[in-house]
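Our consortium's second objective concerns turning raw sequence data into structural hypotheses that experimental partners can test. To show how far this objective has progressed, the report includes one record in full. It was chosen at random from the queue rather than selected for favorable results. The single chain below, 138 residues long, was entered without modification.
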Amino acid sequence: MKNFLSILLLLIMAFTNATANSNTDTDTVYTYHDAARNKYVLNGNKLEYTPIKASESSSGIYSGGTYASKVITEKESQELVQLFKAALANKKAQTGKNIKPNTAVEINVGNKKISFMLKAAAAINISLNNFLKQLIKH
C-alpha cells in the first residue's frame, strides 16, 4: 500500500509539472516593436499588428498601415516563440540603446515582464522582423 501511494504521488507530481510546463508558452505574451515602432503582439495563436499613425511618427508623415489581427497555425506560433526565445538568449544581439533603427521586445509571463532592445543589424532581429511581417501579410 505504501508503494502504491508513493507511485501515485509521483504520477500526480509528474502530471502537474507537465501541465504547468505546457501552459507556459500559452500564458506568455510576446511583443515586438519594429524600427518604426509598429507593434506586433503574439498571444497564443493570435497575432496582432498595430501600426503607428502618421501623427505618432517621428516625421509626422509615416504611417504603418492598417491594423491586422489573425489566428496563426500552431506550427507558426511555435516557430515565432522559438525566435523570441533565441532573441532573449542572444545577449550579443541585444543593446541598451533605444534608438532607431533598433527594435524593442517585451515578454510577459504572468506578472513578470522581460524587456530588451535588439540591434537592427543582428541576424535574430532580421529573422524575427521578417517572419512577423510574413505572418501578418498572409
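The partners drew two points from this record. Residues 2-23 form the longest helix (22 residues). Residues 2-24 have pLDDT under 50 and may be disordered. Both points have been shared with the crystallography group to help prioritize constructs.
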